[in-house]
Amino acid sequence: AIYPFKREFVVGAVSTDVQSGQATMCYLPGIETAERECWYINMGAVDRAFFTTEAMVKMSETGHM
After folding, report:
1. Among 16, 23, 31, 39, which is most exposed with the fewest C-beta within 10 angstroms?
2. Mind spelling out the 3-state secondary structure of the chain?
3. Domain count of the chain?
4. Does the pTM of the predicted model rise above 0.85?
5. Does some domain include residue 5?
6. What is the pLDDT of residues 28-56, one digit of tens each?
7. Residue 2 domain flag
């Protein structure tokens, strides 16, 4: 994707339980993701229907819409 403005991309995130010290790492996109350019941000690539509970469940089950 080509963006018309400078931007930063998050390539990973971590969630840490400060009580137990347990940390979970999440790579964005995931290591198993076939498409490497799968996070299109502020490009109008999705509409409101993408953010419904039904669409999110479908995406989690199949990996695509």
Report:
1. 31
2. CCCCCCCCCCCEEEEECCCCCCEEEEECCCCCCCCCCCCCCCCCCCCHHHHCHHHHHHHHHHCCC
3. 1
4. no
5. no
6. 777 777 766 656 565 666 788 888 999 88
7. no
